[in-house]
Amino acid sequence: MIWRVDSWTGKPYAQDVGYDDPEALRAVVGKLRGLPPLVTSWEVERLKELVAEAQEGKRFLLQGGDCAETLADCQPAIIANKLKILLQMSLVLIHASKRPVIRVGRLAGQYAKPRSNPTETRDGMTLPSYFGDLINQSDFTPAARRADPRALLDAYGHAAMTLNFVRSLAIGGFADMHHPEYWDLGFMSRADLPDALRAQYRETTERLAAALHFMEAIGERAVEELTRVTFYTSHEGLNLHYESAQTRTVPRRSGHYLLTTHMPWIGERTREIDGAHVEFFRGIENVVGVKLGPRVAPDDAVRLLEVLSPKNEPGKLVAITRMGAAEVERRLPPLVEAVRRAGRRVLWVCDPMHGNGMTTVTGLKTRSFDDILAELERTFDVHAALGTVLGGVHFELTGEDVTECIGGGLSEADLDRRYLSVCDPRLNYRQALELALRVGAKMSAGARG
Ligand code: PEP
Ligand code: CO
Predict the structure, then answer these.
(1) C-beta atoms surrounding 446 within 10 Å
(2) What residue numbers bound the domain in which 286 lies?
(3) Domain count for the chain
(4) Which of 66, 67, 281, 318 to mutate to test the pocket of ligand 1 (most atoms within 8 A of CB)?
(5) Residue 408 placed within a domain
(6) 57 lines ligand 1 (CB under 6 A)
(7) 101, 107, 196, 365: which has the fewest C-beta neighbours closer than 10 Å?
(8) How far is ligand 1, taken at its centre, from the CA of residue 177, in Å?
(9) Phi/psi at 360 (nearest 5 deg)?
(10) Burial, 376: exposed, middle or buried (Cβ in 10 Å; 0-12, 13-18, 19+)?
């Protein structure tokens, strides 16, 4: 079948939110179509080159950010703190893996959420679920929960503001990589950080700085690239009205580029091979991620990868596995083997968040630091045993002091203190840094062994 920007409209559309005013939707989509893009095809192609190198084991990918970004959190400190923790984690991973790290934020557009249940009932009243700020609002009133097409424009504007700030920080020397004392960016003095963690991070960054100075002294060109702080953006490509409105051809290139983000991904709930999302994403030039959970049959995953990248293009696909710590050793090997046997090119990335959810007795969604770490470590081991490479990690995190995940300094009793996520629980600053150090230790041990 021939692909068109709107050929997805003829397919079953999972997680459709059902706009009740088609005329208003058409007007908004028309407006979005004419607005300048958030990213460019050059950046998209550059990311594809980097991901292609990561597929060969030459780079490592770090993807992270909120489960659900909100318009209210489009604030300078919150955005900067998210970049800071991603930057710090990337330094730890560069040091441990001895490879450059590709930084990809879940930001500037992570505003749409798939829901297991399309409606929510409270005190006898049933309303549509909250599908993220791209769609509706979280307040439990009929007006707030109505899918409003104008939210698409509002979210687009906030994505643009976020990205503008991210780019300015990155270009303006957000962190001068020659000075490890700048890399902590004020975080290291925080009282809640255990001394051991602080010391470990300090040691890592000092060694990294010394190595950079040495490489520079011998005129190594890679230094220039290592020290340039670049962030790419990603979000789940859930609302196809929004994504297709910003999908276009560009001068002097063939094919269509989705220009709301560098790297969209297809979620676990929308990767139906005959569905609208796969139809849409098979036609664009971007690097595309696809989430693969414990229920995916290996043969179906192979078919999905074939559909999404018929030419098996280097750098095109990122397979983000999220099996859960308990299942990963059983579910991952047959999947990886099937993909390898079929000769499909992917970058294997581990999302240790979405297979490890649990609910406390008081009804809070949480995740345990130990489960998250266990899935990561087991995923490294599975790939090592099969001779494949785990080329990246994917986290839900924030630079804020939230209390949403258990472990890494927090117990279940702490969760009520600062639980701010409107969707899934995120790692806080300390938990995220600790996790990077633990993953780093695992990677260095793997490299030695
Ligand atoms: C997510 O990444 O926020 C998400 C919903 O993940 P998944 O599709 O893997 O469940
Ligand atoms: Co999530």
Answers:
(1) 16
(2) 7-448
(3) 1
(4) 67
(5) yes
(6) no
(7) 196
(8) 33
(9) -75, 170
(10) buried
- Relative to beta strand 247-248, strand 357-359 is unpaired
CA dihedral 214, 219, 220, 222 (to 10 degrees): 100
Nearest ligand for residue 322 CA: 1
Question: 37 by DSSP, 3-state: which?
Answer: coil
In this structure, the residue with its CA closest to atom 10 of ligand 1 is: 268
Q: Is 67 in the pocket of ligand 1 (CB under 6 A)?
A: yes
CATH number at residue 35: 3.20.20.70
Residue 2 within any structural domain of the chain? no
Q: What is the pLDDT of residues 319-361, one digit of tens each?
A: 999 999 999 999 999 999 999 999 999 999 999 999 999 999 9
User: Environment class of residue 268 by beta-carbon count within 10 Å: exposed (0-12), middle (13-18) or buried (19+)?
Assistant: buried
Helix segments in 350-428, DSSP class H: 369-386
Instruction: Report CA(144)–ligand 2 centroid distance (Å).
Output: 21
Q: Give per-residue pLDDT as tens, 99-108.
A: 999 999 999 9
Helices and strands, number each (H, E), in the chain: 14, 14
DSSP 8-class letter at 407 = B
Could you say which DSSP state residue 100 is in?
-
Structure tokens belonging to residue 205: 């960054």
The Å distance, Cα 111 to ligand 1 centre, comes to: 12
The answer to whether residue 69 sits within a structural domain is yes
Q: For the whole model, what pTM was predicted? A: 0.95
Give the pairing type, strands 247-248 and 231-236. unpaired
Q: What is the pLDDT of residues 67-106, one digit of tens each?
A: 999 999 999 999 999 998 999 899 899 989 989 999 999 9
> Is residue 210 one of the residues assigned to a domain?
yes
